[in-house]
Amino acid sequence: EDSKNNVNIVGLSETKIGSSIDLMEYISYGTGVRVTSQNGTNNDSSRSHAVLQITLKKKSKIHGKISFIDLAGS
C-alpha cells in the first residue's frame, strides 16, 4: 500500500481492449503464463494468483467494473 492506502501490485498492467476477441486473447495469454503443478487433489493446480478486472468506460467516465479473482491452489 502507498501513503494513501492504495494497493500497488508489482508487475500489474492495464490494457485498453477494443473487442471481445482482444479480451479473449489477453485471457488466453494470462492463463498460459500462470504457474501450475500437480498436487494430491489435482493434476494441474494453479500456483499463482490471477486477477482480471474489466472496467467499462465511455469518455473517461466509469459505467461498470467487474473483478475475477482466482487464488492459487483453490
Automatic annotation (TrEMBL):
The keyword Transmembrane does not apply. Coiled coil: none annotated. GO terms for biological process: microtubule depolymerization; microtubule-based movement. Keywords: Cytoplasm, Cytoskeleton, Microtubule, Motor protein. It comes from the Eukaryota. GO terms for cellular component: microtubule. GO terms for molecular function: ATP binding; microtubule binding; microtubule motor activity. Gene3D superfamilies: Kinesin motor domain. The keyword Cytoplasm applies. It is found in: Cytoplasm, Cytoskeleton. Residues 1-74 form the Kinesin motor domain. SUPFAM superfamilies: P-loop containing nucleoside triphosphate hydrolases. InterPro entries: Kinesin-like_fam, Kinesin_motor_dom, Kinesin_motor_dom_sf, P-loop_NTPase. Its main location: cytoplasm. Belongs to the TRAFAC class myosin-kinesin ATPase superfamily. Kinesin family. This is Kinesin motor domain-containing protein. It comes from Nymphaea colorata.
